[in-house]
Write a structure and sequence with these properties.
single chain; alpha/beta; five-stranded parallel sheet; two-stranded antiparallel ribbon; 8 helices; 48% helix; binds zinc ion
Length: 208
């Protein structure tokens, strides 16, 4: 099975993809991980990515496509995969159609307001990186890390203005992708408002 997972930041897509990969015996392929791995391995494409990232630039559609293509050609993913973070643009989706089209595109649907509420309640330990949530997963003592006693902070990425900005970018990039796959009849839309286990159950039912 070849799946693409789409979902806004804060929808829990990465965790869902990791769980689904184990459950369905598929390879979980995230673009972030492909970039890091290519840089680490020092392949020609990896060296290009490194120089772009080091200079603070964005990796182009072309280079991203080449890296994903290279990754999907490796034997360890021949049993099927879940792509997480790719495609992100129409040119990327068009390229994927040519070299390795996905069978299903899973759209984890959740409102912006719910995502903002989730992320705005997130607290991070600056020392051991443990993550808490003021209502869903509070520390034993208010504002203090259970594990190491450090004072918890709100990461810049989790601030409301930053979350709103990321959501606007996501909606702008992803809405056309959903349309692209919808006309091909491949989109499964899953309600992602519930707890991770409820969302996962919804996904498994829809996949049958
Ligand atoms: Zn800590």
């Amino acid at each position: 099975m070849k799946l693409v997972f789409l979902g806004p930041p804060g929808a829990g897509k990465g965790t869902l993809a990791a769980d689904a990969a184990v459950d369905l015996k598929l390879s979980h392929i995230s673009t972030g991980e492909i970039f890091r791995e290519a840089v680490r391995a020092g392949t020609p494409l990896g060296l290009k990515v490194k120089s772009i990232l080091d200079s603070g630039g964005l990796v182009s559609d072309y280079l991203t496509v080449e890296l994903v293509k290279e990754r999907l050609a490796q034997p360890d993913v021949s049993g099927g995969w879940i792509l997480d973070g790719f495609p992100r643009t129409i040119p990327q989706a068009e390229a994927l159609e040519i070299f390795n089209p996905p069978e299903r595109v899973v759209n984890f649907d959740v409102t912006d307001e719910l995502i903002i509420a989730r992320l705005a309640g997130r607290r991070t330990c600056p020392s051991c990186k443990r993550i808490y949530h003021v209502t869903n997963m509070p520390p034993k003592k208010d504002g203090v890390c259970d594990a190491c006693g450090a004072v918890l902070v709100i990461r810049e990425d989790d601030s409301e203005s930053s979350v709103r900005h990321r959501l606007v970018t996501y909606r702008r990039q992803t809405a056309p992708l959903i349309g692209f796959y919808e006309v091909k009849g491949r989109v499964l839309t899953i309600d992602a408002a519930g707890s991770p286990s409820v969302v996962y159950e919804g996904f498994r039912k829809a996949l049958r």
